[in-house]
Amino acid sequence: MTNRIYVGNTTSDDITVIDGSDNETATVAAGSAPYAVDVNPRTNKIYVANSDGNSVTVIDGTNNSTATVAAGTTPSAIAVNPNTNKIYVAN
Q1: Mean pLDDT, all residues of the chain
Q2: How far apart are CA 89 and CA 55, in angstroms?
Q3: Most exposed: 25, 36, 73, 82, by fewest CB within 10 Å?
Q4: Residue 70 gets which letter from DSSP?
Q5: Which residues share a beta bridge with 26?
Q6: Largest CA distance in the chain
Q7: CB 88: neighbour CB atoms within 10 A?
Q8: How far apart are CA 15 and CA 29, in angstroms?
């Protein structure tokens, strides 16, 4: 476990990362209106549903680098199966 908390900031199009050990924060850019967040603890990847961007931002938890994947219209929920590494997005 990384002891990090990820919070979507829908009005600023980014994610706040809170270090649970010392409450230090960092900001990571996401897509338009990041709405839902889920984490795969096995891969240390964070998945963010961008409701206005029709995409999912994938954050690498080791260095906060990002990639964006198309995800249909208005993704509003996301779930990760850590055993299969499948990501499910509700539109």
Answers
A1: 95
A2: 10
A3: 73
A4: E
A5: 17
A6: 37
A7: 11
A8: 6
Positive or negative, the CA dihedral 35, 41, 42, 45 is positive
| DSSP label at residue 85 | T
- Tokens found for residue 22: 């010392």
Scanning the structure block, which residue is given the tokens 């539109």?
91
Q: Kindly report the pTM of this predicted structure.
A: 0.94
Taking alpha carbons only, the member of 86, 81, 79 closest to residue 36 is 79
For 42-51, write each residue's pLDDT tens digit: 999 999 999 9
Place of tokens 């050990």: 21
Measure the CA–CA gap between 90 and 76, rounded to whole angstroms.
Answer: 6
DSSP calls for 10-34: TTTTEEEEEETTT--EEEEE-SSSE
* 15 bridge partner residues: 8, 28
The secondary structure of residue 57, as a DSSP letter, is E
Instruction: List all residues 6 or more positions away from 72 whose beta carbon is below 8 Å from its beta carbon.
Output: 54, 89, 91
